[in-house]
Amino acid sequence: MKVIHTIADLQETLVAARAAGQSIGLVPTMGALHEGHASLVRRSVAENDVTVVSIFLNPTQFNDPRDLERYPRTLDADCALLTQCGAQVAFAPSVAEIYPEPDTRHFSYPPTDAVMEGAMRPGHFNGVCQIVSKLFAIVEPDRAYFGEKDFQQIAVIRRMVDDLGFRLQIVPCPVVREADGLAMSSRNTLLAPAERAIAPQIYAALDASREFARSHSITLTREYVEARINAVPGLRTEYYSIVDADTLADVSDWNAAPAVVGCITVYCGAKPIRLIDHIHY
Ligand code: PAF
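# pantoate complex -> structure
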């Protein structure tokens, strides 16, 4: 596997691949790779001739500098995992390479980027659109792979792709969970053992709420999930929103949208670590 740090070197490699008629898959990441990322990379490797995995801790999507500071950085281990998965290229540029000038572009795709994470982390999706649009322009992939764990992120990126007319396919990939149900996340490594022990209660509550929802309203289902999680010492919900899976607008009735999803953010432990998850009803 080639590890490339500059846009010029990456494009030189990709021009040759494209000239040979090869398809290109892109897996954008911020590093600290785990089995969830590996599943995206394996899928891209199976579906494309060349898989490029970007490893770039994008500063413009962090609205909290402490969050950026403590984000795990594990480039050597990341490259070892990508080699194992069969990726051809790891693209690990510097911040100056990606943002030689501050990125002043503004993206706005309400309601998808205005609710939930968009409301709680102002500027977050703007930063995501800045980096993802740059990566799409640099790599020009045929397909781009994103984990459904960041359910809202995929909805926002789809809107951006339509808006900017990128000719590529967005491939959403299922959440990969630990054996106890906790959604895999780079942030899980920041959990102390006692925090890691309670974190699976988040998915347990979401999973149980499916059965509860069969005979209860949206409001009662939301209250059920919040009460169950907040009853666990060390867990505190930030929001639990039950929304139209396409637009992410709130729904008040189970039949108000063809597909309904519940999206949650929970603070875990004393630091605290912010964990997200979702469930389809
Ligand atoms: O999901 C992520 O890890 C990031 O938001 C992404 C898509 C790599 C952009 O920095």
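# post-check
Residues 133 and 186 are 23 Å apart (CA to CA).
Residues 28-30, 58, 61, 128, 131-132, 150, 153 surround pantoate (CB under 6 Å).
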